[in-house]
Batch of 4 targets.
Target 1
Amino acid sequence: MLDQLVSVNLMSQGERSHTVDPRRYQFKNPKLLRLAFIHASASPFRVANHHMAWVGDSVLHLVITEALMAAYPQAELGQLSLLRQYLISRAACLKYAQDLKLVQYLRVGLSYKPQGTIAGRLLNASDNMLAELFEAVMGAIYADGGLLRARTFYNSHWPLPHKLEAAMQHYPLPHV
């Protein structure tokens, strides 16, 4: 569940757990995380996750660029660009969202009811909705805790292979 990875902790201050696990992120402002879960169809006031996803996309781009440069300082830019292209792609963001089981937290509007929701939560979201949801969560972490927290969260969940060759074989990269 998400609360095992990203700690929403809507409990009182005294009940909140204090953890040092880098895979968890303790939100100082849980409203940011709640905002990340609201699809535009569920918000009559145009306050939804797409703005947070826009920020998260930039954060993800920077975090992955830094990780690639640190892990593979001698690599050619073409190889790094291919890896980054995949790691920030819709397919990768969809995988990240699936790894975190984010679909259960996505809030959608009534227009999605016939397609399968329970209490406004979508059971079967589109790949694009899920990928954007992950970007919105990254944006929420950045807005709440800054770049260091976003970097730590991402890198602790999806560390890069130690060798460039392993990374090039591990990810479904386009052939050039």
Target 2
Amino acid sequence: MPEAAAHAVAHVVAQDAHRSATDFLAAVGGDRLVREMVALFVAYTPNRIAAMHSAADRRDTRGLCREAFALRAAAMQLGLSEVERVAASIECASLDAPARDAANLLADLVHAYDAAVSRLQPAA
């Protein structure tokens, strides 16, 4: 499958996952819950990413893993599969080779977060 087609398929799958997760939240707590969850994710994720950068700089593998785990869980609740995937990669890398992989993975995470925020804004 050509790379552009694979990217398009992945984008549709990610949108479906996001829709399913937010539909579930809306069914449980209404649109207000969805808006609150999105607002919390958007408000707290930049600080969490900054903490991950700091932990990586200090070679604090536990701190990096803890922050990645928390971010992965938050992304999963909103169906943000790319943020979830990158956070899981950071979680694993923090245990295996933190210094080598953290910088690239954190850059990928920032990109995934920015893309997720642009998709979330209509829900907020």
Target 3
Amino acid sequence: MSKERLKHYHVWLVYGIALCVGVVVSFLMEAPQNNYVDNLILLANFKNLRDIFLQNSFVIVLIYVISFFNSYLPFFIIIQNGCILGVTISWIFQNNISLLLLILPHGVFEIPCLLASAFIIVKGKKLFKNNPQRIVKALGQHVALVFLVALIEVYVTPIVYNLIFN
């Protein structure tokens, strides 16, 4: 197995461990009440779309930039995302498992974003060294996918939630 392919597995291993840590940490924290989650679902609007898109785009750009200097620093972003997902899933199981439907509509598209991030972390500057236009194209595609995920999270998820729970 090549060293780069092994590094792909390291990204996923680190993410998986962080997810497990998030689950454990969630038992040490108080889970938000269901009405808190219900209120978030009702906030489908442009401001939420903008905020989610800008936050996720910032993380993607940060991964791209940091990976040029050091391929290990972006692992902290992967660890953070894994912990957050672990805490979220655990809280959902503790409160109301049907709320898992809040993650699924946009989560299906977030996985490719995470895969793309892992690819960028592993390849880093080697990927773009001979062809700087390649980074602009890759970043543009990545940000477009992040926008699609934000659209689904803000507008589709509430529809799915309302169809199932109302």
Target 4
Amino acid sequence: MTLSIVYSSHNLEPVQYVEVLLQLSQNFLLCKRKEMTKSLKERVNNLMKKWFVEYLVPANRRFGIKIVTISDDSKTFILKLPYKRKNLNVGRTVHGAAIMCLAETVHGVAVLWNFDPKNHRMVTSTTYLQFIKPGRSDLFVKFGLSEETVERLEQVLSVKGNTDVEYECQVTDGDGNLVAILKNKYHLARLGYNKDMRIEVGQSSESIQASYKIRNEVFFEEQGIPMELDLDGCDHKSHHLLAFVNGQVVGISRLTPIENKKAILSRVAVKKEYRGFGIASKIVKASLIQAEKLKVRNIEITPHEYLREFYETFGFKYIEKAGAVTFHQLIKMEMPLC
């Protein structure tokens, strides 16, 4: 029922159709660029996408599904399934396949409008359609993606290249009566994805400043830790690890060599919007590799108590509690490297 499936019997893939349409749109805009305002350009692009959804998707063309409303911010959509003979079953009610196509299409439309179809593909992994009452008139479905949802998906795709999402929508008749509920799980992927994530180690003033920026955001602004506790005078003799995603520093750590071939791992932090993608684990692993390069035999760390299990997965052993900082209980942990 996804765009990828319904096009399987045609010569062109869905993304190729979109590329052709967008190229036509871009050529038209190029010819008219001196005459058209930005809003008019967006309207032309929306018309091309609307045409794609209504006429180039065979199932939508077959059922007569139309986009009847697009919100001003292009975030919310209303689609219509007409009550006509070829959409009905023997009982003269709207066929379940047509209802499913209507409901699933609105999810695809929301993604199409917010993510470049040339660079993204969404396919259905599971579908659940609950019928509430028979459809005996034109049917409608409304769905949208909030700005926060779109931003979050962009972040996930920039880090992982793909993600699974679950969307739900309600199908109603012209009087607003509930006809069906669709709950779908989709796999959304960025085509040609080449994750630009790297970790660099530096001791320069630029590396320190980049580290300061993340530390200020995470420790001072988010956790309320006093700035003077962070400025311990060890930055210039430490190795700063910076995690980059698409050219932006999103995570850090600091490795400070001390006497007797020991080192202190500290200042491990990841920007809030990039947590949950395994970046912190990669930073800790890179820190351990850097410690081995420096011939370090033992690493000490003083993390928050709730992070004990996280650091134990790398081999750190709990030693003792180490006091509290602004209501954050700290613990001392160590890990031998030889």
